[in-house]
Amino acid sequence: MLSLTAVQVGAIPLNDDTVTPGFLGFGVFLALVAATVFLIRSMTKQMKKIQAPREADLAQEEWERAEARKAAGSKAADSDEA
């Protein structure tokens, strides 16, 4: 039985024309493509959920901090005068 297999394997020359990925290689390739598509869809969903601060919100927060510093500074000056 083993000798019959050895004869059959030796009968076919192995080169780029006779050795191909076949259906298994194609199936693995399709599985990788499908996994990539699902991962990209999931990543897109997660990225849409992120609440990044907008430029206007950052400017508003900076203005509020400046106003708070001014108010704290005027209270300190008022308490020094009294």
Tell me what you see in this structure.
This protein has helices spanning 2-11, 22-49, 55-81. It is mainly alpha-helical. It has a domain at 54-82. The radius of gyration is 35 Å and the shape is rod-shaped.
Features:
mainly alpha
Compact summary:
The protein has helices at residues 2-11, 22-49, 55-81.
Indicate the topology.
Elements lengths: L1 H10 L10 H28 L5 H27 L1
Computed over alpha carbons, the radius of gyration is 35 Å
State the end-to-end distance. 110 Å
Average pLDDT rating? 83
Q: What's the number of extended β-strand segments?
A: 0
> What is the count of DSSP helices, taking H or I runs of 4+ residues?
3
